[in-house]
Design goal:
alpha+beta, 5-stranded mixed sheet, globular
């Protein structure tokens, strides 16, 4: 298994995995739109994507978006997406991707990584807790659909 910092050379692999990720979250498959979305992220350099390769093929990815904490006056990376193909789960790939994200956060001077997952996604929650992530007991997070 090889974890790489993805770029446009890996667009097809990342787009395919991103489409699978969206389907997991109950969206309709649209590989073309997924490819355009990821291409835009690469073009605008507004996300960082780590890709897990098995024999040269993409089998998992994680995507980070930059943010900042005003109170702490520091960089925060939002670990927005994490996905591993079902055929490659239970092999430690998600852990390797999460470690690559944490290493990148440290290298870029971030004060923390933040993430969210569905309340019913027990396997993801177990992974995050095993890596030292803590459930926020202080703040409620809200969203406004626009």
């Amino acid at each position: 298994m090889n974890i790489v910092l993805a770029n446009t050379d890996y667009l097809s692999d990342v787009a395919m995995l991103f489409d699978h990720y969206r389907v997991f979250y109950h969206q309709l498959s649209n590989v073309h739109a997924a490819e355009q979305f990821i291409a835009d992220r690469f073009h605008h350099q507004d996300s960082v994507i780590f890709l897990a390769l098995d024999d040269g093929s993409g089998v998992g990815f994680t995507q980070l978006y930059p943010s900042f904490s005003s109170v702490s006056m520091g960089r925060v990376w939002i670990l927005n997406d994490l996905f591993v193909l079902p055929s490659h789960r239970q092999r430690g790939i998600a852990t390797q991707l999460m470690q690559a994200a944490a290493d990148y956060g440290r290298e870029t001077g971030a004060i923390r990584l933040a993430l969210a997952t569905e309340k019913t996604n027990a396997s993801a929650q177990a992974l995050y807790e095993s890596l030292g992530y803590q459930l926020d007991q202080t703040f409620n997070h809200f969203a406004l659909t626009l």
